[in-house]
Design goal:
Blueprint: E1 5-8, H1 18-34, E2 37-40, H2 52-65, H3 88-100, E3 104-107, H4 111-123, H5 139-147, E4 153-156, E5 163-168, E6 172-177, E7 185-187, H6 195-205, E8 210-214, H7 221-231, E9 237-241, E10 244-245, H8 261-266, H9 271-279, H10 294-300, E11 311-312, H11 315-328, H12 331-344, H13 354-367, H14 377-385, H15 393-400, H16 405-418, H17 424-438, H18 442-454, H19 462-469, H20 471-486
Parallel strand pairs: 1-2, 8-9, 10-11
Antiparallel strand pairs: 3-4, 4-7, 5-6
Helix pairs in contact: 1-10, 6-7, 9-11, 12-13, 13-14, 13-19, 15-18, 16-17, 16-20, 17-19, 18-20
The protein binds one RNA strand of 76 nucleotides through α4, β6, α6, β11 and α11.
Length: about 500
RNA sequence: GCCCCCAUCGUCUAGCGGCCUAGGAUGCCGCCCUCUCACGGCGGUGACAGGGGUUCGAAUCCCCUUGGGGGUACCA
């Protein structure tokens, strides 16, 4: 492992959504490509919104995706702890240092005062920036405020002149006039560090070499650079990856349906599909490859092939990719991932006995290229496991209400009764013979039979269905359908 | 309001001055295969936001406009 160190630093305030997952993935790919370290750090300094449950959830989602970390929660490492809430003494140490060196100061303004000032400034068309009033507080004034029990925040003294230039690996040089920034808060009145401060202290003390994060942080970067300078830390390299937008081009949020990794999992998407798809959102290998295995992506990944344009994620393409992977997956592996779904839908219970497993295997194989998600499998195979199904109305109208269908099915039933062994070849031969004798089109017999056996007008090849069901159940279902048709 | 970023088919993208009458994928449409539905194969639809420059030559470089996104919090 070399000295390339990157991190993913989510705040545990909700599920891991596709944007976060993509950021995590790019960091991870970068680390794996270069043989560096990938660190997971939990940014739980927002006491109000952070939850342990959310942290657990994020960790679970990352694990499911196969994004593993070299240092972080559950794993440890030489630069821990990896929860910011456990690093408070570190932030205290550095904020005190800034205070001692006169690079930061205590501010006693209340949130109400500040809000009022902002409002005032907005009305007058001035930028809503903090005035810097408390910079010049006298020692006495400070003492008095402290004695009154006011809880100050700590602000960084920001240079009023000059320019801060961010050197971004993806966007090139981006410059900011220092005067657009105010003396921003680095420690809140509850003693917790703000994002910009904790982030800098941690990235530096954790020896992060490349800060790869979403573009929404680009505007924060000059502030962080000011902190690096004030603290005497050396700068990491920055790379701001484009955002992922919801289909309506707005920022991703809860109201956009399935945006969390967890939801995609529940909907029957495969982790390797999410990874493949996400890798292609904002990055491409440079040629026309789209279906790429994880190892392939790792060897090809490079930051200079990351685009600058925000991407809208499109579940249509995700679904296509998922269907493709499902087709390519070995049946036994597919069954393994489908089992929880099958169980949930009451199709079967674990442990699956050998005899059932064989049937399950045949059934899954039969529907494998007909489903787009694993979650569709239970419904697709349900009639193989339950005799108790309804006939589709469309099928009844179209195929059961035809003249002479009952008679035709009766004839078919008699032929099939004599078929031995009952396999693909023999069943089809029997049917073809009957079709020829009657001088009808294949579909005229095959369609009503399918409705009789499955209740549906679509599905796997009819003879596959017969063989998987077995002779006995095939005949039973034909009998049942004939009876039903006669009552129509 | 101010600051920053971005701009190729509906969507994801290739393109880094001539190879572009702009390539691939997905979606959609049609045809073929076929017992249905899928799969697969073939074909079609569809984009350089607009305007100025620079250049022998611009999707590619520069400027403006427009549009989209982000930031501007005691959120991260």
């Amino acid at each position: 492992m070399n000295d390339i160190r990157v991190r993913f630093a989510p705040s545990p305030t909700g599920y891991l959504h596709v944007g976060g997952a993509r950021t995590a993935l790019f960091n991870w790919l970068f680390a794996r490509h270069h043989g560096g370290s990938f660190i997971l750090r939990i940014e739980d300094t927002d006491v109000e919104r952070s939850t342990e449950e959310s942290a657990r959830q994020i960790i679970q989602s990352l694990t499911w995706l196969g994004i593993d970390w070299d240092e972080g929660p559950l794993k440890g490492g030489d630069y821990g702890p990896y929860f910011q809430s456990e690093r408070l003494s570190l932030y205290r140490e550095y904020s005190q240092k800034l205070l001692d060196e006169g690079k930061a100061y205590l501010c006693f303004c209340t949130q109400e005062e500040l809000a009022r000032e902002r409002e005032e400034a907005r009305k007058q068309g001035r930028p809503p920036r903090y005035s810097g009033r408390c910079r010049d507080l006298s020692l006495e004034e400070r003492e008095r405020c402290l004695e009154e029990g006011r809880r100050p925040v700590i602000r960084l003294m920001v240079p009023r002149q000059g320019t801060t230039v961010v050197s971004d690996l993806i966007r090139g040089e981006v410059s900011f006039e220092n005067k657009v920034f105010d003396d921003f808060i680095i420690v809140k009145s509850d003693g917790m560090p703000t994002y910009n401060f904790a982030c800098v202290v941690d990235d530096s003390t954790m020896k992060i070499s490349h800060v790869i994060r979403a573009e929404e942080h680009l505007s924060n970067t000059p502030k962080q650079m000011m902190l690096y300078r004030a603290l005497g830390f050396s700068l990491p390299k920055f790379a701001h990856v484009p955002m992922i937008l919801a289909p309506d081009r707005s920022k991703l949020s809860k109201r956009h349906g399935a945006t969390s990794v967890e939801e995609f999992r529940e909907q029957g998407y495969l982790p390797e599909v999410i990874v493949n798809y996400l890798a292609l959102l904002g990055w491409s290998p440079g040629d026309n490859r789209e279906i790429m295995g994880i190892d392939e992506i790792i060897t090809e990944f490079s930051l200079d092939r990351v685009s600058k344009t925000a991407a809208v994620y499109d579940t249509k393409k995700l679904t296509w990719l998922n269907a493709h992977y499902i087709r390519e997956t070995a049946v036994d592996d597919l069954i393994k991932t489908a089992l929880p779904f099958l169980e949930k839908e009451g199709i079967l219970r674990e442990p699956v006995p050998d005899s059932t497993y064989q049937k399950l295997r045949d059934a899954v194989e039969a529907v494998q290229d007909r489903v787009k998600t694993v979650a569709e499998i239970p419904h697709a195979v349900s009639y193989f496991f339950s005799d108790d199904f309804e006939y589709e109305e469309k099928g009844v109208n179209k195929h059961f209400k035809k003249e002479g269908v009952a008679d035709l099915l009766r004839a078919a039933r008699e032929r099939l009764a004599e078929v031995e062994p009952f396999d693909l070849e023999t069943t089809e031969k029997a049917y073809r013979a009957l079709i020829a004798e009657r001088g009808i089109k294949g579909g005229q017999l095959i369609h009503p039979t399918r409705v009789a056996l499955t209740g549906r007008t679509f599905g796997p090849g009819l003879f596959d269905v017969m063989v998987i069901l077995g002779k006995e159940r095939t005949l039973e279902r034909l009998d049942r359908a004939i009876k039903m048709i006669e009552k129509l």
